[in-house]
Amino acid sequence: MVVNAKTYSQKPTEVTRRWILIDASTATLGRVSTAIAKYLIGKYKPTYTPHIDAGDYVVVINAEKLVVTGAKETDKMYYHHSGFPGGISDRTLGQMRLRSPEKIIELAVKGMIPVNKLSAERMKRLRIFTGENHTHTAQTPEKVEVNPPKLSNIKTTSTSKNIEEKVSGGK
């Protein structure tokens, strides 16, 4: 029996992209971010080729209702440096949620995408919205469910009310 088993390599002209809709309030930050990264890279497709950008467009809704576990709301820090001496600044996850909740998901997904020439184009296909409404209804995105963790594993979930209390110091 002779088998012609050649490795398939996708060409850029053969790429087909779908629109995916993910609700960020259904699972924790890590689970939502890995699902988003999987669709942006296109690694779930049988035609996946590492050097070809074959990922999909991803629309994320409910970024302000993002779920985190434990004490990450006050303990997880985001650092930024201005480039000048002594110009480092930091924010907690709770402060980031109040200021720009879409940035939390964007930074988490950016850390999960391979750093190469394709990463900028992949991140451009990520669209994050704070509420239920989004501007991509004309593209008819397919809703994808992110598998939530078992409820016994979640110690605390944060709501916008107790976030403001934690950030402001309970005043």
Can you put this structure into words, describing what you see?
The structure is a single chain. 29% of the residues lie in helices and 15% in strands. With 171 residues, it is α/β, with parallel strands linked by helices. A four-stranded parallel sheet has the order 5-2-1-6. Strands 3-4 form a two-stranded antiparallel ribbon. Strand 1, helix 1 and strand 2 form a beta-alpha-beta unit. Helix 1 packs across helix 4 and helix 3 crosses helix 4. The protein is globular and about 70 Å long. 22% of the residues are buried. The mean pLDDT is 90.
Keywords:
alpha/beta; Ribosomal Protein L13p, Chain: A; 29% helix
- Counting H and I runs of at least 4 residues, what is the number of helices? 6
Q: Would you give the CATH topology?
A: Ribosomal Protein L13p, Chain: A
User: What's the architecture, going by CATH?
Assistant: Alpha-Beta Complex
Helix content: 25-40%
Low-pLDDT sequence parts: none
Mean pLDDT: 90
CATH class: Alpha Beta
Sheet with the most strands: spatial strand order: 5-2-1-6
Largest sheet: 4 strands, parallel
Strand content: 15-25%
CATH-level-4 superfamily name: Ribosomal protein L13
Quaternary organisation: single chain
Order of helices and strands: EHEHEEHHHEEH
The outline comes out as globular
Total strands: 6
What's the structural domain tally?
1
Class per helix and strand makeup: alpha/beta
Give the terminus-to-terminus CA distance: 77 Å
Determine Rg (CA atoms, Å).
Answer: 19 Å
